[in-house]
Specification:
Elements lengths: L9 E10 L2 E8 L4 E2 L6 E2 L2 E7 L2 E5 L2 E13 L9 E3 L14 H14 L1 H10 L6 H10 L10 E10 L3 E8 L4 E6 L4 H10 L5 E4 L3 H10 L4 E4 L1 H24 L11 H4 L7 H26 L4 H8 L3 H9 L20 H9 L5 H10 L6 H13 L17 H9 L7 H10 L3 H22 L8 H13 L4 H12 L1 H9 L5 H16 L6 H11 L1
Parallel strand pairs: 2-7, 9-12, 12-13
Antiparallel strand pairs: 1-2, 3-4, 5-7, 6-7, 7-8, 9-10, 10-11
């Protein structure tokens, strides 16, 4: 019987099915003596017997309940204050426990992976019923892992409650696991942790000034490495602010003659219907009112953060309004891909001939291979009747100017990664003297950062001089947004140079944050910091 139902330290007497979904295993301890927990004296004098009913691991999908016959012994040591004591089964049960150690360990591990509520629901189907509160208690009882102190540390922030409360995640970049979670993202908290862990020699971080200050305070001898992806992101954000300020000026540039437009560009979806125009005008009026309110508050001396909180809009929107030379109009809606694109030329010619029968047009293009439905053609014809097709030769029509964000992506990307449309757009805006002057400067910085990322930090030997020359040129370029960006980089120059020469980055920290978000959402956002920290560290 013990071979089929092993119970450590006990002899199984019999197994009874007490319900269709549960069994009971009767067993008793096999030792002949017990040790007094106070004085350590062995005793064989039995005082009495009683029964314990702990839950155990399931068998064949059903619940298992043990029926243990436990003895009480006399303590024969005259100097001991205890008269009797119960025998223990340390390999099987903790004192006063209602579940075996192996069951508690299994339920705790399921709680680490699934959380309290989800774990409790799952374990009911696995034959280990337990409450969600008990699952959380078992998770808290699991000891935290003991790991070697980190040498290369990744630091990043994570949202406990987005937009309101943030914490800090610390990742061992060599061993690929989370080292610790901090309850906030202040310099003082990070510095205190670093002082307690003086083995850290490299710190990879984003452009946060708080983390830079915390690293300087807590580990002044450590090498700080700025994440290259964050450098490119900051570059794109700077370009977007700059282009948002001159977007109206770029709209006035004459079109560049690049030959025939594609069918997608020739479609009449550049214009809006009357109902769409009304909605657009209402939206523009609201944006214009916010724009004027932002500038009124700026002139009154309010900060960007105060304006953001008072008006209930993001700081990025406030910055965009503040940096724009005039009201930043939305970019025109760009056409989308349609199954009708290959047959637009034929449809336009048939309409010009006077054929407006949708069914006839649909049969005509279906014979030519059109796979779509007649309803799609109906929608196109209805829109074509309400909004006439653009006039003039295709090569003379002015293309749509992308938004500042879309243009920023084009400028920050490598020229080899651009398609023909992207290259044509850059050629169009390069007619502006300021764009033509700054585009090569922007491209050089992006190429330097990307090249070091591809070679995992193996930059040219003269990279310090290249970076210093770029900062000198950017600070003297005459464009305030670019000069401010370069001044910020100058303050972090040592960490940026380390990013160009060392292989470390915050990529691992970003991946661990994804795991942390999953754990946090499993708890429906109600788990406190201590429980989140424990689950993340145990799941690493």
């Amino acid at each position: 019987m013990n071979e089929f139902f092993p119970v450590p330290g006990c002899c199984v007497e019999h197994v009874t099915r007490i319900s269709p979904t549960s069994i009971q295993i009767s067993a008793q301890v096999v030792r002949h003596e017990a040790i007094c927990p106070d004085c350590g004296t062995a005793s064989q004098a039995v005082h009495s017997r009683y029964q314990r009913h702990p839950a155990d691991l399931p068998s064949l999908g059903g619940e298992v309940r043990l029926l243990l016959s436990v003895r009480r012994f006399y303590c024969r040591n005259p100097a001991c204050a205890r008269l009797t004591f119960a025998e223990t089964i340390p390999d099987l049960l903790a004192p006063k426990a209602r579940r075996t150690r192996r069951l508690a360990a299994t339920q705790g591990r399921i709680g680490i992976a699934c959380g309290g509520e989800t774990g409790a629901r799952l374990m009911r189907f696995l034959g280990m019923p337990v409450s969600a509160d008990t699952v959380v208690r078992l998770v808290r009882a699991v000891p935290l892992p003991v790991r070697a102190p980190p040498r290369v540390l990744g630091v990043d922030d994570w949202a406990r409650r987005k937009g309101q409360t943030y914490g800090t995640i610390l990742v061992d970049l060599e061993e690929h696991h989370v080292v610790d979670l901090l309850p906030d993202r202040t310099a003082q908290t990070l510095a205190a942790w670093l002082r307690e862990h003086d083995t850290v020699s490299v710190i990879a971080r984003d452009r946060s000034t708080e983390y830079a200050r915390g690293a300087n305070l807590g580990a002044p001898g450590a090498t700080q490495v700025v994440d290259r992806w964050h450098l490119l992101r900051n570059l794109r954000e700077m370009i977007e602010r700059w282009l948002a300020g001159i977007h109206d000026r770029l709209r006035q540039l004459p079109p560049v003659h690049t030959g025939e437009l594609s069918p997608r560009q020739r479609r009449g979806t550049f214009s809006r219907t009357r109902s769409e125009t009304a909605r657009t005008q209402d939206s523009r009026a609201r944006r214009l009112a916010r724009h004027e309110e932002v500038h009124r508050r700026l002139q009154a001396g309010e900060t960007i953060l105060a304006i953001s909180r008072a008006m209930g809009i993001s700081r990025q929107t406030v910055r965009s309004f503040a940096s724009a030379q005039s009201f930043p109009e939305h970019a025109e809606r760009r056409p989308v891909t349609s199954a009708l694109d290959p047959w637009l030329d034929h449809l336009e010619s048939r309409l010009a001939e006077g054929c407006a029968n949708v069914a006839e047009l649909w049969r005509d293009i279906r014979e030519r291979g059109y796979p779509g439905s007649v309803q799609q053609l109906h929608r196109w014809v209805d829109r074509r009747r309400e909004v006439p097709a653009p006039s003039g030769r295709p090569s003379e029509r002015k293309p749509i100017l992308a938004s500042a964000r879309q243009l920023a992506w084009l400028l920050v990307r490598s020229p080899d990664a651009l398609d023909e449309t992207g290259k044509a757009t850059l050629a169009w805006i390069a007619q502006d003297a300021e764009v033509a002057r700054l585009n090569p400067l922007i491209a050089r910085f992006g190429d330097l950062v990307r090249a070091c990322g591809v070679t995992r930090g193996k930059a040219p030997e003269d990279s310090p001089a290249i970076l210093a020359r770029w900062l000198d040129e950017a600070e003297a370029c005459g464009t305030p947004v670019v000069e401010t960006f370069a001044a910020g980089l100058r303050q972090d120059q040592a960490a940026i140079q380390a990013a160009l020469t060392l292989p470390w980055s915050s990529g691992q920290a970003e991946g661990q944050i994804n795991k942390l978000k999953l754990i946090k959402r499993q708890m429906y956002g109600r788990g406190n910091f201590d429980l989140i920290r424990r689950r993340v560290l145990l799941a690493a």
